[in-house]
Design goal:
105 residues, alpha+beta
Length: 105
């Protein structure tokens, strides 16, 4: 499956109680050239192409798999530089709305 399918599947892991009043879009830029996104709005995560997102992360498919499997935490990946971003704190806040421990650590 393309990485976009796993990014878009995060929508079922959104904790709507944590997303009250939150509205933001995040773009994932994978090293293989694929780009995708998610928009959190009205306590729902909506799959997008990410092209209009102000927030962005760049990472490999392997790093994304490690994050999803819990082999790597978001904070460790940001600190080590395996994920590059234009706004680390805002990315962490965005991803903390999902019920996946590796994304909120």
């Amino acid at each position: 499956n393309p990485p976009s399918s796993t990014v878009h599947s995060l929508r079922v892991l959104l904790n709507p109680d944590l997303a009250i009043g939150f509205c933001q879009e995040l773009r994932w830029e994978f090293e293989d050239g694929e780009t995708t996104g998610l928009l959190i709005r009205n306590q729902v995560a909506i799959p997008t192409d990410g092209k209009d997102a102000r927030l962005a992360i760049r990472l490999s498919i392997e790093t994304w798999a490690d994050l999803l499997s819990g082999n790597l935490t978001l904070s460790d990946s940001l600190t080590s530089g395996v994920i590059t971003t234009n706004a680390s704190e805002e990315i962490a806040k965005f991803l903390s709305h999902f019920d996946l421990p590796s994304l909120s650590q």
